[in-house]
Every structure is written in C-alpha cells, then in structure tokens.
# Entry
Amino acid sequence: MSYEEIREQVAKGNAPKVKELTEAALAQGTPPQEILQEGLIPAMDTVGEKFQAGEIFVSEMMIAARAMYASLDLIKPLLATQQSVTKGKAIVGTVKGDLHDIGKNLVAMLMEGGGYEVVDLGINVPPSKFVDAIREQNPDIVLLSALLTTTMPAMEETIRAIEAAGLRGSIAIGVGGAPVTQEFAERIGADFYAPDASAAVSQANRVLAGS
Ligand code: B12
# Structure
C-alpha cells in the first residue's frame, strides 16, 4: 500500500479498491490520521482542482467523493477512539442555503481526530438552529462552512444571531470553505479562518489556548 495508490484510486472513484487499500493499510498498523492526511485529503484537493480546470465533471467529482467515503467510513470510528480526553466540544455545520458537505465533513473528522468532541448539524443549517444547538450543547467552538459566494452572507447572519442570543462571549467561531478568506472572516467578526481541515484544527487549538 502506498498513499499514492490510495490517492489515485480515490481520484478514479474506485470505491471497492479504496476500501481494500484502507483495510490493508490499517492491518499494517498505519495510523488512520495519516491515511486521511496523506491519502484522502490531497486526493480530494486534486479532484477539486481538476473540476475547476474543467478536466472532469461534477458526476466524476461525486464518484471520487463516494470512494473517499469508502475509506472514511473505516477510519472514522478509529479516529474517535484514539483520544481519551477531549480538548473541547465543537459544533460544525454548513450554513443556510448551502448543500456542500465534503469539506465540512473532513473538518469534522479531523477535529475528532485532533481530540475534539464534534456535533455535526449537517447542511443548510439556519442561524436559529446554530443558536439552539449552542444552548443545548454548550460548545467551545462553532465552525461554519460555506462553498457558495451566495451563502457567505449566511455566515454573517449566523454570527449576528449568536450575538443577538447573548451567546457570542462563550464560544470561538471559525469559518471556512473555498470562497472564504481571512479578510472576510475578520469583516464578519469570526475568531478564525482556516484554508483546510488540518489548519482548522491548529487554529482551533490556538484560539482555545488563547494565544
Ligand atoms: C462537489 C460539489 C458540489 C456537489 C456537493 C455535494 C456534497 N455532498 O458536498 C453538488 C453537485 C451537490 C453541488 C451543487 C452545487 N454547486 Co457545487 N461544487 C462542488 C465542487 C466540485 C467541489 C466542492 C468540494 O467538495 N471540494 C472538496 C472539499 C474537500 O473542499 P472544500 O469544500 O473547499 O473544503 C476544504 C476547505 O475549504 C476547508 N473548509 C471547508 N469548510 C470549512 C469550515 C471551516 C470552519 C474551516 C476552518 C475550513 C473549512 O477544509 C476543507 C478540507 O480541506 C466545487 C468546486 C470546487 N473545486 O470547489 C463546486 C462549487 C462549490 N459549486 C458551485 C455551484 C455554483 C453549485 C450549484 C449552485 C450548482 C447548480 N447550478 O446547481 C449547486 C448548489 C447547491 C447548494 N445549494 O449548495 C460553484 C460555486 C461558485 C461560487 N463561487 O459560488 C463551485 C465553486 C463550482 C464552480 N466552479 O462553479 N456542488
């Protein structure tokens, strides 16, 4: 098993092969975190770039994503049990109007792998649902994902709703997704932005450590 092989098979969308390679890697004692970081995430990055360049269609992108999930399904339970003490609780969700969840799921997964307890609210999450979840779950961090320029304003709406509910002080808010930038994050009053899932974990660590 090599990571290159996993990346190639994810990009090709060969779910049974990806599952087989993941099983073999795990049987050899490969850390699940590494399969995610070295195999799945770079594979999906490449697929996204190819799509943007017009080299592949959405259908091929979706088939690649399905292959990625064939591996993620095996890795996820292992990531969650690796850590015995949690660093904190995070709520994640894709904002209102937005149905993209591949990136959000990767962030959720790496946060779990990084020692956080994660509550995933799913896609198309209205501001009121984030507010209710914060009341119920009492998280340390709230992570908002958006993949469309037209749903970026829903991130700001969500932050304003959290403020209006008087809950802003107790949590750190992180934002991300392909169209989101550091500058946008600052403008809407988020605590941090990260360009990818592993940076999301280090930013969460940094913000919670108060540095
Ligand atoms: C897959 C996909 C879809 C799938 C989504 C399936 C799913 N379950 O997610 C489907 C086919 C449903 C879809 C639909 C649409 N899509 Co689409 N889609 C994509 C595509 C090809 C890939 C997105 C993706 O998953 N990338 C891979 C992941 C791993 O990357 P990522 O999401 O960016 O996440 C990473 C980082 O951004 C970051 N991150 C993500 N979230 C967060 C959150 C936090 C807090 C942090 C810190 C970090 C972070 O970490 C992640 C991992 O490293 C992109 C093109 C692209 N190259 O981005 C278009 C794209 C996003 N879609 C687009 C459009 C226009 C649409 C539609 C409107 C199409 C239509 N006309 O119907 C609909 C909208 C539906 C809706 N209401 O949401 C446009 C958006 C244009 C724009 N600027 O707004 C894009 C850019 C394509 C394009 N070039 O035109 N889409």
User: Anything to note?
Assistant: The pocket of cobalamin is lined by residues 41, 44, 48, 51-52, 58, 61, 97-104, 106-107, 143-145, 147-150, 174-179, 194, 196-197, 200 (CB under 6 Å). The mean pLDDT is 91. The first strand starts at residue 88 and ends at 94. Residues 58-82 form the longest helix (25 residues).
